[in-house]
Design the sequence.
């Protein structure tokens, strides 16, 4: 298994796929294809970053993985199942196995931190009592570094970094097999960016066996944290594999992207968790 | 003058064209919105009967649509009752028929003003809030978050609001009717010195339960109307804060226009139905 180029030829060997996209195409107007034949296998248990210039189809691809968009053609397999062959109850059940951290956290602003973190359990775990739900939510909040003194605050009273933490705790509430991060560090200052990057890394390793997929513009974070990197361009996979192959690539666009992304400074070593 | 017209003919002609094209576009948009709200309503209604049932959410929205509207309904209905009864008193005094002020006010309030004013007030207050709330949730990705969590956002956000509006609107209308009649009673008996016994006797004679009932039915329909229109606009809002503002504005305006149109259609239909059934 592995991450493949548009030709479908695997380039990286892994043991198992969390997500497999096969000849995925998507058009909204019937003419311009946002995704134009994506063949991609995202290995389970690893951190995979999806990078690329704006408008290359990263978010659209992510929405396909979540089952929010239906492909024009091609298949989307998540945890070994074609999600568009599922019934709606099966798709809902599948979604409970995927946690999503949104770009701007997307917390429910009329709920407290605790209510937000416990909300997925309230919906999908009717077997749990309120006290049990709150206990689990508190453990998730602690795991992402939220001080319990903030538990009764509303999202509007939190800083950007704290909102991201709460969003991550909510995404972890149902112990998902796959965690998706949409532009996790967009709009954050450099210090907070590093904190969030570390949080992604620590969370991934704390919840053993989970797969993390990070859609990001932040090349430093992508190269520092990721086991695999996928670069999209014009709706196809331009290059995919371990971070090293990006440094070695002779592709002009890849080199231009790396140069712009690192702003002419030396690229970081692939040493996840080295950030303090 | 003619020379000015000749010199600017093309410009004036283009302006007139633009005006009528804009008008036609507004009408088209209004009917498209009505159609979409209709589909949205039936989708929402279907989801009311699917599990998990959202009783807690329905009660929460009933509190928002109903309880929080009571004060404004009481205030507007008091002054509506006062003003209407005074105008009717002045008119009937000319033809020496002041004994009929009570039932005329009663019929006007229960059949028309009660449901229509309740509909307009609650559409502006609660409908606007619904559109703004859902619009904000849409642009802040909170609706996407619900979907990603495996929760049907229409079932969670839209259906409870619709049900809450259907239940609370007739109750608010009943409060409006009662308070407006108390206002009319106060003005006619205490201020204008009409005979209390005659006032209420004539009301009992002329005002039928069917009059009150048709007002309550209308109020329920107006509740569905503004809930469907406003939630549809909010749920499908796009374009950030500007989009939310436009969705709220359009939702409230369309709801109000629809309430006025529906009121006339329902009055005609209900009078016809009552006539066929021999009820009035």
Sequence:
């Amino acid at each position: 298994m592995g991450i493949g180029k548009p030709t479908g030829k695997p380039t990286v060997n892994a043991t198992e796929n969390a997500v497999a996209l096969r000849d995925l195409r998507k058009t909204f107007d019937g003419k311009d294809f946002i995704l134009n034949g994506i063949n991609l296998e995202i290995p389970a248990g690893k951190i995979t970053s999806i990078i690329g210039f704006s408008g290359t189809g990263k978010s659209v691809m992510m929405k396909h993985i979540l089952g929010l968009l239906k492909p024009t053609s091609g298949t989307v397999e998540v945890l070994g199942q074609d999600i568009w062959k599922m019934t709606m109850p099966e798709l809902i059940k599948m979604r409970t196995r995927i946690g999503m951290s949104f770009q701007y956290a997307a917390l429910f602003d009329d709920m407290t931190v605790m209510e937000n973190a416990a909300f997925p359990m309230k919906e999908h775990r009717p077997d749990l009592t309120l006290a049990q739900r709150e206990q689990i939510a508190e453990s998730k909040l602690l795991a992402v570094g939220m001080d319990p003194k903030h538990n009764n605050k509303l999202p509007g009273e939190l800083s950007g970094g704290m909102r991201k933490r709460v969003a991550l705790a909510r995404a972890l509430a149902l112990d998902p097999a796959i965690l998706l991060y949409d532009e996790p560090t967009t709009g954050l200052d450099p210090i907070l960016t590093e904190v969030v990057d570390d949080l992604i890394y620590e969370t991934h390793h704390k919840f053993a066996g989970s797969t993390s997929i990070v859609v990001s513009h932040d090349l430093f974070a992508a190269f520092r944290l990721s086991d695999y990197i996928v670069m999209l361009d014009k709706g196809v996979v331009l290059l995919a594999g371990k971070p090293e192959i990006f440094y070695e690539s002779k592709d002009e666009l890849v080199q231009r992207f790396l140069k712009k992304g690192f702003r002419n400074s030396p690229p970081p070593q692939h040493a996840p968790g080295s950030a303090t | 003058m003619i020379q000015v017209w000749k010199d600017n003919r093309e410009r004036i002609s283009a302006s007139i064209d633009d005006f009528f094209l804009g008008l036609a576009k507004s009408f088209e948009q209004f009917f498209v919105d009505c159609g979409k709200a209709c589909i949205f309503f039936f989708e929402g209604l279907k989801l009311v009967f699917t599990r998990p049932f959202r009783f807690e959410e329905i009660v929460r929205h009933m509190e928002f649509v109903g309880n929080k509207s009571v004060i404004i309904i009481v205030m507007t209905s008091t002054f509506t009752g006062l003003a209407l009864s005074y105008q009717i008193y002045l008119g009937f005094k000319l033809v020496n028929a002041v004994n009929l002020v009570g039932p005329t006010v009663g019929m006007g309030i229960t059949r028309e003003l009660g449901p229509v004013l309740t509909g307009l007030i609650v559409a502006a207050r609660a409908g606007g809030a619904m559109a703004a709330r859902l619009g904000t949730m849409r642009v802040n990705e909170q609706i996407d978050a619900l979907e990603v969590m495996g929760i049907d956002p229409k079932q969670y956000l839209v259906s409870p609001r619709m049900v809450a509006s259907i239940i609370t609107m007739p109750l608010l209308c009943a409060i409006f009717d009662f308070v407006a009649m108390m206002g009319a009673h106060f003005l006619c008996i205490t201020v204008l010195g009409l005979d209390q016994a005659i006032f209420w006797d004539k009301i009992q004679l002329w005002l039928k339960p069917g009059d009150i009932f048709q007002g309550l039915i209308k109020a329920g329909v107006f509740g569905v109307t503004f809930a469907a229109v406003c939630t549809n606009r909010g749920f499908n809002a796009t374009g950030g804060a500007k989009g939310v503002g436009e969705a709220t504005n359009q939702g409230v305006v369309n709801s109000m226009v629809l309430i006025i149109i529906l009121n006339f259609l329902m009055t005609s239909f209900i009078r016809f139905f009552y006539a066929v059934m021999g009820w009035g």
User: Anything to note?
Assistant: Chain B touches chain A through twelve residues (CB under 8 Å). The mean pLDDT of chain B is 89. Chain B has one domain: 41-272. The radius of gyration of chain B is 23 Å.
